[in-house]
């Protein structure tokens, strides 16, 4: 894992978006196509803003995303399908393909459908964040590190649901869906490259814990330390509890 620390979320997003675009273009140059996994949520705002400004040939890119709530309409403000359509898909030229998670479909059938698709399109670049409880996608602790299923039905814990409310996506904890379809830990780790964007002071404790503790399913995002090409982008606030903070790159 390479850790890059920037002064603020804006600079973090610019750096993460530029690095991701370079990796995507490298894949297109080598293979003619690129397969990407996008994350959602407030941590990705600046990174996606930069990504859409880059000169990527999007007609050669196939898109997957990390997760979606069960039984939440695509029109709901918190829907990750809506997020991606509003913040990415409508702002770039048409992609080669975009395989969005349908949280309103039969969950097991949807997991099977997506699993078959992603096996045909191994990810070149995955975008992820780290939840306040240390989750990757919706793999809340204790996360399943062993399942070979590319996608699974995940139950959201109290801290995860409270984070969604606090970020303004839902009016109350009780209104946050209790389950979601999530990409599995193993599937995320199969990505050739991972861009992890984690801005903000509220993420400082979990960043410290995931970096300092031995890799454990109690700190799911800590497994990124084992990835051969993971780039962790922090700002000064999210990096504030790390004992040794790298110089700004």
CATH topology: Rossmann fold
| Rg measurement, Å | 17 Å
With helices defined by DSSP (H or I, 4 residues minimum), what is the helix count? 7
Instruction: Tell me, briefly, the overall form.
Output: globular
Helix content: 25-40%
Mean pLDDT: 95
Main sheet: which strands, in order across? 1-10-9-6-2-3-5
Strand fraction: 15-25%
Low-confidence stretches: none
* Largest β sheet strand count, sense and barrel closure: 7 strands, parallel
Structural class: alpha/beta
What are the secondary-structure elements, in order, as H or E? EHEHEEHEHEEHEHEHE
- Assembly type of the shown chains? single chain
Note down, in words, how this protein is organized.
- The chain is an alpha/beta fold and 249 residues long.
- 31% of the residues lie in helices and 19% in strands.
- The chain has one domain (2-235): Rossmann fold (3-Layer(aba) Sandwich).
- The protein contains seven helices and ten strands.
- The strands form two sheets. It has a seven-stranded parallel sheet with strand order 1-10-9-6-2-3-5, with helices on both faces.
- β2 (34-38), α2 (45-53) and β3 (61-65) form a beta-alpha-beta unit.
- The chain is globular, with a radius of gyration of 17 Å.
């Amino acid at each position: 894992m390479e850790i890059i620390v920037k002064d603020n979320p804006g600079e973090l997003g610019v750096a993460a978006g530029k690095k991701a675009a370079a990796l995507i273009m490298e894949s297109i140059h080598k293979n003619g196509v690129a397969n990407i996994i996008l994350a959602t949520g407030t941590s990705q705002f600046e990174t996606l803003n930069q990504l859409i400004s880059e000169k990527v040939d999007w007609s050669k890119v196939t898109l997957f995303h990390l997760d979606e709530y069960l039984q939440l309409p695509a029109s709901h403000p918190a829907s990750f399908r809506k997020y991606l359509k509003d913040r990415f898909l409508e702002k770039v030229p048409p992609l080669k393909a975009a395989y969005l998670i349908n949280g309103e479909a039969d969950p097991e059938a949807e997991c099977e459908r997506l699993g078959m698709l992603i096996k045909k399109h191994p990810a070149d670049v995955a975008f992820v964040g780290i939840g306040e409880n240390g989750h990757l996608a919706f793999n809340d602790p204790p996360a399943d590190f062993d399942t070979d299923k590319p996608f699974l039905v995940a139950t959201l814990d109290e801290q995860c649901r409270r984070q969604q409310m606090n970020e303004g996506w839902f009016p109350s904890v009780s209104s946050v869906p209790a389950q979601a379809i999530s990409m599995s830990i193993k599937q995320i780790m199969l990505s050739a490259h991972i861009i992890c964007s984690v801005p903000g002071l509220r993420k400082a404790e979990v960043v410290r814990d995931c970096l300092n503790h031995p890799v454990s399913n109690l700190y799911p995002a800590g497994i990124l330390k084992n990835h051969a090409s993971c780039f962790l982008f922090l700002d000064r606030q999210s990096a504030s509890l790390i004992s040794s903070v790298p110089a700004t790159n």
